[in-house]
Design goal:
single chain; five-stranded mixed beta sheet; two-stranded antiparallel ribbon; globular
Length: about 160
């Protein structure tokens, strides 16, 4: 069943790019005792994700922090090297947005937010969404309709906080 408001984030291990190479990071490390604005994209380097989704969270970093967000995180079903290259190309450091690679899609399947992008040659990916998570519990969840970019934007999430 798809993750809902009030649900606890499932335990999973993701990967994050670092200057020393990819590093495993658990959902407990990411969400435990923190308020996290998590947004997920179908793929790094894809048009909407690169032109609007990630840049929107970067541009609104201060507004999110002012609303009590400790961490802004971006998740994609990509490998950590791709996520690192995407962050570098977008000039995004880990203090601005924590890049999370869900390479095997384990987390994405656990929260039941899988999108089948096989027709476009991309396989199983994450749906586009945003959520606010407080100490591991989902307090806001915004799942986009296929092809849309409205409710998962930084501006929409800020208005909900």
């Amino acid at each position: 069943m798809t993750l809902q408001i009030g649900d606890r984030i499932p335990s999973a291990t993701l990967m994050t790019p670092t200057p020393d190479g990819p590093r495993p990071i658990t959902t407990d490390e990411i969400f435990g005792g923190k308020t996290v604005a998590l947004f997920a994209v179908p793929g790094a380097f894809t048009p909407t994700c690169s032109a609007r989704h990630l840049p929107g969270y970067v541009e609104n970093k201060d507004a999110l922090k002012a609303k009590g967000v400790d961490t802004i995180a971006c998740l994609s079903v990509n490998d950590p090297f791709v996520m690192g290259a995407w962050a570098e190309s977008q000039k995004v450091d880990a203090d601005t947005v924590l890049m999370l690679a869900d390479g095997n899609g384990d987390f994405t399947r656990a929260v039941d937010l899988v999108m089948d992008a096989s027709r476009g040659g991309m396989g199983q990916r994450s749906k586009r969404y945003s959520m606010l998570v407080k100490d591991g519990v989902v307090t806001q969840l915004n799942i986009e309709e296929p092809g849309a970019f409205e409710v998962s934007s930084a501006e929409h999430l800020i208005a909900q906080i």
